[in-house]
Target: Cytosol aminopeptidase
Amino acid sequence: MPTSVHLPVTARPALRVSRSASGADVVVAALIGAEGSATAKIVGLTPRAVKEAETSLGTDLASLAIRMGGSPRPGSTAVLPWKSGSLILVGAGETAPADEDLRQAAGWGVRAAAELAGDKGVKVAIDMGIGSAEGVRIAAEGALLGAYHISRITESECVDPIAEVTIVSQARGAKPELRKAEIMADAVFLARDWINTPANLLYPESFATSATEELGDIANLSVDVLDEKALASGGYGGLLAVGKGSNRKPRLVRADYHPEGASTTLALVGKGITFDSGGLNIKTTDGMYTMKCDMGGAAAVLAAIKAIARLELPIHVIGYGCMAENMPSGKAWRPSDVVTIHGGRTVENSNSDAEGRIVMADGLARSTEDNPDMVVDIATLTGACMVALGTSWAGLMTSSTEAADTLLDASEAAGENFWELPITDEVREGLHSDIADTKSSGSRAGGAMGAAAFLQGFVSPQADWAHLDIAGPAFNESKAHDYIPLGGTGFGVRTLVHLAANLAS
Ligand code: BES
Ligand code: MN
Ligand code: ZN
Model:
């Protein structure tokens, strides 16, 4: 048994549902209407509470909010006095928010409430006219995810700005939905914490140990870790080659959730490069700085499988975390080196900075031995995908329209954006090698699609396969917004959980 690790952890606020907002320090309601208009309306709050507040303030709340800089524009916030605390009116668009708009409005509200927190955490009530149990779940997700902040590694302890979240609703059957939101938020927090942990603390061995501890005690879920010796005897030439330049040795984590009676098998494969320096094809200063996030795919897979198991979804799910650190050194593998991937296919290294697909090849090849009905891989794989789709959309690549539809349905329910890119003959042909079965990369043109074409070579043609490139949305370098924090976003966790739920039903 490996020794245990202590990595930074961000606490999730407590969550409850209530018919009223009483007891909260901060109440969040929605402001809707045509942009900039005087006809803005409040959604949420009881008529009696509004009347009391308006009498004591001597004006109507909606127009006061507009005068204080508020607006129905999504993301705008106005803070008003409210009983013994504050009222935050969050812009939520033209109509009462639902689905992703509601999730985002709740996130914006909690984010604004956190700014009001002093030296102790605030209790926040989300009161947005939520009328269904599903609405409670969605608002709770947005609020909890919006409460996340990077766990600082400092001398003194810091307080969590949000102590408690209450969703105000009269809806029946809301309690079980709360638990679903908690499980989902816990998984996204876990992925974010792993991603934000610097690579001196989170490296293949400690990542694998942390995953074993996090997933260890859940019913029907078991975790196996292959260390460098086991990788060598199993012929995992990709993980070993990428890991060679580093003193931190690679790991392959296999998490198997197998509930009784499950008839469908889903395999998930995640890129777990704990730091991507580029290897001998070393990155630039700016390009390297955020590369602790390069294990975001493995984080998404392992966190998702934890949620899937805690939700007891009736489906067999096997998750792989392909973990290595990509470093330059006298031991590093070189451009033009040829290595053998698990299962026997050979790869010529065109560029040591195209390391993710190499470790993923081992994971995908291993996953075919599970005879899955569907295989989904997820990776911060290419800068090209970020160039194509920006930082809030991920790429989806597959040769199966059914797999594309299934994933797009799941991502829609999750509130995560994916856009399909083709895998063209042009990029397939670009992978020709004169010496090995394939080169690792081809031309810069269509780089995201070329990576997908490479990966496809390691998947069994029988399985329905899709590739998710999350290079853009995995890590937020600019500014926190709605329920997306700075740093690791946990992108992909929620889509994978919804995918498993949809395949199970
Ligand atoms: N981890 C990077 C991709 C990446 C870039 C993720 C920016 C997140 C933000 C990946 O390993 C990489 O370096 N890809 C190369 C591939 C190329 C050498 C074929 C790239 O995109 O430049
Ligand atoms: Mn790279
Ligand atoms: Zn990488």
